[in-house]
Every structure is written in C-alpha cells, then in structure tokens.
Write a structure and sequence with these properties.
With about 170 residues, the protein is mainly beta. The protein is built from 1 helix and 6 strands, in the order E-E-E-E-E-E-H. The protein has a 6-stranded antiparallel beta barrel. The radius of gyration is 16 Å and the shape is globular. The protein starts with about 50 loop residues before the first strand and ends with a helix.
Length: about 170
C-alpha cells in the first residue's frame, strides 16, 4: 500500500494502523491451486474476540533458536499450520494468539494468511481474514502476532485487482 512506512513500525504496541498490505501480480497464472477467498465487508461483523482462526506461516516456530540452525525447532522456511484465535480486535489490525500457551506467529511469518470460517450462503466458507504483519510489541513472539485485517482493505484490493488484471 502506498501509505506503508516501515519506520512507523519501530515502536510496536499492539494492533495499530500501519497500512501493511500488498499484492503481488504474477506473470503467469497459477492454475493448479484453488484461490482463497477474502472476507468481505459484509462478513466482517463475524470477526470477534475468541473466534477460532487457522494460521499458516513459514517463519520461526520458536523465538529462542536462531532461524539458521539446520533442522532445529526454530528453523524458518517450513510451512506450519495451527489453530489459534483472535485475541484483540482493532480497527485496522488484530492480535492472533495471546501468549506461549497459544499458537501464534513469529519472525518470518509476515505476509502469511489467517483463515476463518464464516456463515455464508456460498458453498465455500473459509475466508482469508488477516495478513501477518508484526509481533505484538517489542517482547518478540511471546504475545502473539498482529495481522492486518483484510476486510478493511477490501476496496483497495478490489481496485488494484481490477487495475492490474485483464480478467
């Protein structure tokens, strides 16, 4: 997003407004994977504290070990999925996970999705509701991660898709 400024993220303190959302347009279509569906503004009222979400990430699974330790529990680059929950819901972002007892995000997970099952009349119920942005504060990964809320950026995403995609 043109308003994103990494310098503004130097003193994190929970969910904020960092405009941390982006899109990548590929030169060739990916045809062997069914695309995920993003949550719509109409479905956003279903985002609530304690709602279960599925998180996916390729980052560190433990902040204690360096990500460069081969085959260690802290190694990044391996896809992990887990069940977690929305712990705090801000206007632009939300905290996923809460402490060391919950599944949460860590370094290297940025850009990864959080999914939620929504009540809808369509045949597919799972929606991308968040994009991993940053840790909760400067205490590393111990307080869960913070996701940019996709519903807030729905119109911007739709506008960019229409500008850049032929069909």
């Amino acid at each position: 997003h043109p308003d994103f400024n990494v310098e503004a993220m130097q003193q994190l303190d929970g969910p904020g407004d960092y405009s941390d959302v982006g899109l990548i347009f590929l030169e060739q279509a990916v045809t062997d994977v069914e695309p995920a569906i993003v949550i719509t503004p109409q479905e956003a009222s279903q985002l609530k504290i304690r709602t279960q979400v599925t998180i996916a990430g390729w980052g560190m699974s433990s902040p204690e070990l360096p990500a460069t330790t081969p085959n260690s529990i802290g190694t990044s680059g391996v896809k992990y999925c887990a069940e977690s929950e929305i712990n705090e819901l801000g206007d632009m972002e939300m905290q996923i996970g809460s402490d060391t007892r919950s599944s949460r995000k860590c370094h290297g997970d940025s850009g990864g999705p959080s999914y939620m099952v929504v009540n809808t009349e369509t045949t597919r119920y799972e929606r991308v509701v968040g994009i991993t942005s940053h840790t909760y504060d400067m205490s590393d990964c111990y307080k869960g991660g913070v996701d940019t809320r996709v519903d807030v950026w729905f119109d911007w995403i739709d506008d960019q898709m229409q500008k850049h995609c032929a069909n």
